[in-house]
Design a protein that fits this description.
Elements: H1 3-16, H2 21-28, H3 32-39, H4 47-57, H5 61-66, H6 84-108, E1 111-125, E2 132-143
Antiparallel strand pairs: 1-2
Length: about 150
């Protein structure tokens, strides 16, 4: 058994029990974005969160323990994503990545946006021409240091 097996079981239970990520997040006690990442194997749960997940998904003690181990991060099976929705994010970074980099450097200086000290919010935005996806990414700026 490994973390991928636990992820498959979680997804299966979610589908079987007609749960939403927002419902699961409210029980875990974190945002739907963080909770979804955690349930998909990208974050480490603490004991309290893992215990809630154990009850929600009918996990064994061993499966619950896997939720508390630091995962191997990075969930894409290929270098260039093939899933159309994920590929569009790849396309956004390919087209706008240099613009994002340039504007962050102009505003903050030489450094990076943290994916560790980070939050994300995904919301539906009503629009008469068709609903829009509103994604806000917020990461701490980490300047490069001189030494």
């Amino acid at each position: 058994m490994d973390r991928n097996d636990v992820t498959k079981k979680i997804i299966s239970a979610k589908v079987k029990n007609k749960m939403t990520w927002a419902d699961i997040a409210s029980k875990i006690g974190c945002s739907k974005e963080w909770t979804t990442a955690a349930m998909l194997g990208q974050m480490t749960l603490n004991l309290t969160q893992a215990t809630v997940a154990k009850d929600l998904f009918d996990l064994t003690d061993e499966e619950t323990a896997w939720l508390q181990i630091v995962p191997y991060k990075g969930s894409l099976p290929t270098l260039v994503p093939t899933d159309p929705l994920i590929y569009r994010w790849y396309e956004i970074v390919s087209v706008y990545g240099t613009t994002i980099k340039e504007l962050i450097h102009e505003e903050f200086g030489d450094g990076i946006m943290s994916a560790i000290d980070f939050s994300m919010d995904i919301q539906r935005e009503a629009d008469p021409k068709g609903d829009r996806v509103n994604v806000v990414l917020s990461g701490k700026f980490l300047p490069y240091k001189s030494y």
